Amino acid sequence: MLVLDLLANGAANLAAHPQAILFAVVGTAFGIVVGALPGLTATMGVAIMLPFTFGMDPVSALLLLAGIHFGGVYAGSITAILLRIPGTPAAAATALDGYALTQQGKAGLALGTATFSSFIGGTLSILALIFLAPFLADWALRFSAAESFALACFGISIIASVAGESLVKGLIAGMVGLLISTVGLDPMGGFPRFTGGMDELMDVKFIPVMIGLFAAAEAFKAMEKTHFATRVKVTIGRVIPPWPVFRGLILTILRSSGLGIIVGIIPGAGADIAAFVAYNEAKRFSRTPERFGKGELKAVAASESGANSCTGGDLLPMLTLGIPGDAVTAVMMGALILQGLQPGPLLFKEHGEMIYTVFAGMLFCYLMMLILGLLSLRIIGRVLQIPSSILTTGILLLSVVGTYAIGNSLFDVGVMLAAGIVGYFMQKWGYPASPVVLALIMGPIAESNFRRALSISNGSYDFLYTRPITVVLLALALLTLAVPIVQGILRHRRGRSPG
Asked: 402 by DSSP, 3-state: which?
């Protein structure tokens, strides 16, 4: 096949450029460090290193940034599993079951599952990028504002699946997140709303809220329980899952990887959406959905393979159409332009050899992510063996520093701490935090695309039922909301029936 020949030539070219291989390793290692630190996202890591790519050859520059991207998305799962602190927004889905597994003494198994799932999902996404680019690009072109709105609605409907024990409390938490997402600049008119005259509220970032709800709230909870007197005991145990266990995860990983690739190629979607969609579908297909949220390996495998399989998918519209799939690819697009290369259909025609060399390097980046990830797990896991007083203080310090690093804003730190206090009381009263974060991510996407679609249709709502893809996605959203409600009603009736 022609593609295989091009990929083989690309691998040979990569082998002849050891500096590019070195930058791929450095980028992946740096990405793992950045991704594991709360508040320091893969987007931030890529943006930080972008100026250093000036003067590099294009292959080295792109592999450095790609390694940071891949390592950053994966490494968010490490602290999500060990500390219930999602290092990246996508890892919020992993934290649901990963931290529960840690509390059960299965931290190593959860970390190993996350690492292998991330590797498989990411590798499959790069292969899809290589082999299915023409087909996937044509399919992505069909997504206008109407389809993007429907996809966001589907994402919001997943709140029903991450609501925890109480569907009502989960929906209330999701509604609070949607309300918060409306604060700031109007997406169409550009005028401030619900800001109370405070300029800082013009752009409410969801990352400080996420750090507060997950990290600071957990630290406050630890203060209440331990009074800084005990040590946190974590047994990493076996990291590589036994074959019988891993064999039972393969179908979930493959299905979630496919979903992640599809979500990734849609401009505006990202790894966080892919992770929650994959989590929801894994729960839907599971024979024991009641175990999700309580320490289910399939949940970890689904969210991580979904999130990482998005990395190759979101590169597709950027490389073939010149449309960034998400914030990271927007920065990487800037790197291409900095190198004098214009993303788009002509990129493959005019610089095909260089592009396939980068593709071969991306596969190498994921191989390095697997190796470096497995080697670093036990080292990172030792952070939990320190006294809880130091650990809790460290969590709060990382939360403050990471939040401040996002925008150099003390106001963001205040938002994070306020969210931490709210998250603490939410835990005490049984309200899940994940629906709030999910709504904060999905809300602006749904609103902006809905209003854009409404504007395109001249105020008519017919786009909701005349576009096939939109109809399918909205139907899936309604089904996702309806299934937990019907299941709850049936469980209630069974509970009331005699005998």
From this structure: helix
